[in-house]
Amino acid sequence: MASETEPPDEPSATDPRTLAEKIEHLFKTVRPRTGEYTHEEVANDIRDMGGPTISATYIWQLRKGMRDNPTRRHLQALAAFFGVPAAYFLDDSMDEQVEAELALLAAMRDSGVRTLATRAAALTPRGLDAIREMVERVLEIEGPPPPPPGPPPPTEQ
Questions:
Q1: What CATH fold (topology level) applies to the domain 19-93?
Q2: Whole-structure pTM value
Q3: Which of 63, 82, 134, 143 is the most exposed place for a label (fewest CB within 10 A)?
Q4: Are 65 and 40 in contact (CB under 8 A)?
Q5: Across the chain, which distance is largest between two alpha carbons, in Å?
Q6: 73-105: per-residue pLDDT in tens?
Q7: Nearest to 64 by CA among 87, 85, 39
Q8: What pLDDT sits at residue 80?
């Protein structure tokens, strides 16, 4: 039993995220331009893609941590909807790779980044190297960008 003077147990940066936290993060990160997907949109799209029957209420319960033991088919359907590997929900070692892909997706929502990426696709390798060097130089001058919203990245022990 903890005494009143002891700080409450808080998850550390190295603690794996819960299923609910991962689903919440996907809702916040993988979204249309108009805002987050609704639970109804996710359930309907999963059904329309030929996935298993899943209700908006059940998705909400998973997202809020009220349910935490979905079927493999439900996890696969949610993964397909959000465009991540199903292993993301079960394998904490996938977090870093998926987070990098989600950060790229979020950056591509910015019209300036999207325009630059589209234009850069037409450059030669030499031109891409020149742009990469310029970006690195600007980052040296301005400092690193602020961290993306969401849970802090895991730290190495």
A1: 434 Repressor (Amino-terminal Domain) (1.10.260)
A2: 0.62
A3: 143
A4: no
A5: 65
A6: 999 999 999 888 899 998 888 888 888 888 877
A7: 39
A8: 92
